[in-house]
Amino acid sequence: MNQEANQNLESFSYDDKIVRWFTYATLLWGAVAMLLGVTIAFQLAYWKLNMGLEWLTFGRLRPLHTNAAIFAFVGNGMFAGVYYSLQRLCKARLFNDLLSKLHFWGWQLIIVSAAISLPLGMTTGKEYAELEWPIDIAITVVWVIFAVNFFGTLIRRRERHIYVAIWFYIATIVTVAVLHIVNSISIPVSLMKSYSIYAGAQDALIQWWYGHNAVAFFLTTPILGLMYYFVPKAANRPVYSYRLSIVHFWSLVFIYIWAGPHHLLYTALPEWLQTVGMVFSVALWAPSWGGMINGLLTLRGKWSEVRTNPVLKFLATAVTFYGMSTFEGPLLSVKSVNSVAHFTDWVIGHVHAGTIGWNYMLTAGMLYYLVPKLWKTKIYSIALANFQFWTATIGLFFYIVSMWIAGVTQGMMWRAIDGETGTLVYPNFIETVTQIIPMYWVRAIGGTLVLISFLVMIYNLLKSIAASKSDLKEEIYQAPALSANTATGHRKLEGLPMIFTVLVLLSIIVGTVVEITPTFLANRFFVKSDSITPYTPLELLGRDVFIKEGCYTCHSQMVRPMVSEQLRYGKPSHISESRYDHPFQWGSRRIGPDLARVGSKYPHMWHYRHMLNPRHMTHDSIMPNYPWLARKKIHYDVLEKKMRVMQALGVPYSDSEVASSVEDAQYQANEIADILAQSGVDKSVADKEIVALISYLQRLGSEVAEGITDQEVEE
Amino acid sequence: MSNNKNEIHESEKKLLLNHDYDGIQEFNFPLPNWWLTTFWGAIIFGIGYFSYYIIFNGPDLKHEYFVNKEEIHALRAEYLAKLKKFDVNTYTSYASSPEMVKHGEYVFNMNCVACHREKGAGDIGPNLTDEYWLFAKGTPETIFPFIIEGNPLNGMPAWGELLGEDDLYAVTAYIMSIQGYPHENPKAPQGEIPEKE
């Protein structure tokens, strides 16, 4: 270097303290998320593990598990990796140390509030977006802090062009913000209760646009960015193909956002949207594999090292599982495959191939790379890392295979029709449950192995950190200031991060607008059917009990247009039936039977006994007992406010209906209590939650069953 | 800071780009052909699929449903009509076999006990052992088809679709076997005493 260049050098340091904090948080919340996963896995295998405590039932812990795994474990891991790599790829310190700290503590506070509010039954009832509105606002604030810190660093960078890892980080920050805000819009009823502004099919569409893209832009794009940093760093090999990076990045970002409706195949969602969801999911296969190719082929010539170096071993395995999951995803999106797999454990297995195989493995590889660098130490034990690797891999194998078997078995049993008699071969739903219980045990054991492997890593890394002798003073680096952007084409764009960001935003807006706008405009989404009346005040309260207990985690409310479903449940669900459902409750898994048409199928007393102990009515049921529903009083004090909010959302309640809502609800509750009293239940049951829940369940599907004909279903 | 120690093979050198980020370099290998085929293939498939089913109104999901439904419901109606025909001889063979009545008790305990209580004392559903009847008339000829058809509005499922012919005859025989059973705390009578024919 000549003299002139030296004079232009600027000095800077990296904030690695915040990376160390996020590393600790990743370890803590990873263990919590996996412990919760193991707990609910055993609850399905053995119902008594629901403990008879409302805070520990499957319906409340399952949302906590998913939120903890996605936002606490992967979230903190992502922040650690992004903040570490961003500074080095930009040759710049993070924009603001205080913002970094606010980001860290804000995020941990959100996680703690989730860990408290979800077991208490405070939930919006929308999957992976269960957190109530004050926490949603906090998430928005912290995400904005993250974005300001991120883009501030980009502006202060000393590297002209932004590397492909940063492209993926940009896609993450922009898209998650859009997804979270649009999907979470709701009107509060009280401090921890709100109703989504969307209803029925529209809510379903927006929820799965969010849900699918939470997978895409929280569990995939940031992790691909981390892959693009840590794989070439750890392997000391150049990235395989820059051209492929460009093509697969833009195609992935553009196509992913369209694929949400594949979660709603065969539902009451208009079919053109379902088809859009399917074809874009199939088209996602190649863009996803572009990332896998670039990851794996970067390791060319390094395979012998993959066997010995734990960092490379975890990274290579992660990329392989990424390839597997992103092949399985498009496959599951094909309508005929989906007709078997939807609502079954196959989907659960698919998700865990992604979260354990891709997210956990990549995070592990990243941490084994980061910890020695961040603490200036060595990995305590390579043998333990290998032990961890094999425990996790075998555990994951048990998990995926058991869920494949369980999913396909149950899916085939549900649809089996006797060719001679035209009746269901397994008419009792419970038969299809007891059949797969052994697989639930295998899955729980597999999950336990994964948890053990994670605890081993925590031990291994903490021992490595404890062995660190050097002080962790920040080092000073030097680099010239930002040079002029003289490149052309895409290379020029890489020198203009703000324009790059705008283009990413436009890419994800296209699919969003095309799919969602019609739901606001077209009448076909809200077919006017006079036979649909809003819920009575008591039914509305019962619906909130249904949501509070997380019933939707095990019960769908969506009969698909298949004869096997029609024989088992009744007429296919019609789009108009859920038009007043804020939020929709179509569900995603049938651990228990569909409830869309359960109304008036059983007497009130059947439901009463069934809620107290499901095994009284169905001998082998795995549903928890809900005795507290017969003890807890109905909250009539918020009813009028709830009615008013619903009114504001367009549910046609008249002012007089709102004014008399408490009286009307109590009248209906007394009617139900009178009938229960005939079977010996104490009349004091009238003001208990169980009565509200029964009124809701008895209402489900009964109106449309009378009003909508098959021909109307066909329209 | 371009002192990276990346391993680069001789044959790859011409594909190495002048990119360096924190020591990370990039090749510019061409896109693999099989990848490009997959990429464009999936997009062309998508356009074709969407055009056929949506733009040109190909058969929709419900079309298949209605075709299958017609076929299966015809089979089912035939089966249920045949099933409902009470055959006295078959019934007698079941009713006279203690083994079959015992099987009927098992079927009853698996399916009916939740609403009709042990030995049909009545609970959510009516007492099955007294002289009063709501829908059936206390004879095997009337009980058998009622079990098959049920009365969904009153919460009695249509068991014809849930139980096989054997189970249905056996459980009818069992219900007849518990007529007049001396329950300690039976449900109050519902319905009427049928007129003797």
Q: Can you put this structure into words, describing what you see?
A:
Chain A folds into two domains: 8-481 and 501-514, Cytochrome C Oxidase, Chain A, CATH 1.20.210; 537-714, Orthogonal Bundle (Cytochrome Bc1 Complex, Chain D, domain 2). Chain A is 64% helix and 2% strand. Chain A contains 29 helices and four strands. Chain A has a two-stranded antiparallel sheet. Chain A has a two-stranded antiparallel sheet with strand order 2-3. In chain A, α3 packs antiparallel against α4, α9 runs antiparallel to α11 and α21 packs across α27 (689-699). The N and C termini of chain A lie far apart (74 Å). By secondary structure, chain B is mainly alpha-helical. Chain B has two domains: 10-55; 85-177, Cytochrome Bc1 Complex, Chain D, domain 2 (Orthogonal Bundle), CATH 1.10.760.10. Chain B is built from seven helices and no strands. Chain B has helices at 33-55, 61-84, 88-95, 98-111, 113-116, 140-149, 165-177. In chain B, α3 (88-95) crosses α7 (165-177), α4 (98-111) crosses α7 (165-177) and α6 (140-149) packs across α7 (165-177). In chain B, 26% of the residues are buried. The model of chain B has no long low-confidence stretch (mean pLDDT 91). Chains A and B meet through α3, α8, α9, α10 and α11 of A and α1 and α2 of B.
